[in-house]
Amino acid sequence: MSEPTEIGTSRERVEEQVRRWCERARVAGRWPMLSDASAVAIAAGRLDAPTREILAARRRAGRSVPSIGGFAAARALAEERARWLVKDTKNKPGSALVYRMRAAELTKRLDHLRTIVVMSTDHYAHGVRAVRRERRDGIHLDLYQRDALFDALLHTPVPRQHIGGFATRTGLSVLDLAADRVAEVSKNTRFENVGDRASAMMAEVADQKDDVFADRYETLLFIAGTSYDRVNSSPAWRSEHFLVQRTQLDLAEELTQVAVDTLSLHDISIELDDIAAVMLDDATRVQVATRRAALESVWTQLIDRVAALVRVADLVTRAEGDHSAMDVTAPSNRSHTAYRQPRAPHARPVTSNASRSVSPISSNGRESSTSIPPSADDTRKSGACRRCFPPCGHSSQNGWDTIVTTETSKSNATR
After folding, report:
1. Looking at CB atoms within 10 Å, which of 68, 75, 141, 356 has the fewest?
2. CA 99/CA 83 separation, integer angstroms
């Protein structure tokens, strides 16, 4: 996966990059698959409001959804089963039987995964008292709600390379290697230009360098989910340094609301496409064009909200790097803070030096004080003089208020 922080930190640059990715339905490089937490938050956008509220309550209570090793695998199985079911079986009686057997095998595997997610005794209450208690706490999911959740998880955003058939994936990999080989062989020869053009065409067809998606809506959800994973998996985000920011912004809820609005916009776009396919009069064309123009403004707001999530992820990533650097340098700093007590003629300068360490020490605009140093008597008894420094830290507030304000305003405007 290419480093997402390379796209810059300015608001306009990030928004333009996210827009370009979505319009091309392609992100730069190969990115990791979405985590279970982000997949569930995105899948909640396909559920009704009561089920979304229960999932949010379960998340706040620390109740997770059963894991199957990544819901991208379930999406790949569902896509493969759909391909076998739609294969043409006319005048192919033998092939039709093979297709049905293959589809039935994939259905069994999906049913097994469904049983894990829906019927887990470790994640859901089954006794009468336990069910009543969960209902009272607002965290109980009924059986039909769990089934709906699993069906929604089958639409987890996944790059197209991971959900293609085995023959397709193998063929693209071979073509990708062939493109590199052609470019290498033709280098520094009179056929170099021809080789470069042929390699570029083959690489474009193979399409193995970048992650490609079905449409711009799935791309937007994948970018939002990846940004959520970057923040949620960061130790810096879970530290006390971002305590205030964690209370200001519920990233999982924001991701769910982005999914709700994105899927609604996608459904409306499909309806307009169906109307445009059968419209005959000019009045209908004008109405469809007007609605499409209105939807573009909503799409722009969604781009802004996802770009805000990307900027939050960039901010947390930089903070994590600063914390790691300070953790590395902290031992070396501490190794120089212990001094051997000098002989009597030099005892007074050392003691006065220790007394000056009581004054506040400024750290990135924040004032913190050191602990009181040992007295002169204690110093002489111990034979050493110690200076206590404040804990390592830094200020990463730059741009945070702008990000939170922008994301909140865009969310309210879209809703």
Report:
1. 356
2. 10
